[in-house]
Amino acid sequence: MTACNPDCAAGPLYKVPAVVTLNHPVKVCSSSGTRWVWTRASFRFPHGLPKALRGGNAPLNPWVFSSVSSAARQSCAS
User: Fold this and answer.
1) What are the residue ranges spanned by the domains of the chain?
2) What are the angstrom distances between the C-alpha of 72 and each of 21, 22, 39, 45?
3) For a designed S-S bond to 3, which of 11, 25, 41, 58 qualifies (C-beta 3.0 to 4.6 A apart)?
């Protein structure tokens, strides 16, 4: 996990145990076949977050990949 101070590329890295849950699958259709992709990732931090990653610096939770979901639905709409 990266603290985004001064920015995400230059911030320090923190090793933080996390449990990641992937859900909200959508079907993707292409010439190479059909597959399913996850469009939402939720995080739980069993040991908490370091002080530098709390409050306004906390990571977004959940991550929602709405553009992937929209593109996937359109790919099978033929």
Assistant:
1) 19-75
2) 20, 16, 10, 30
3) 11
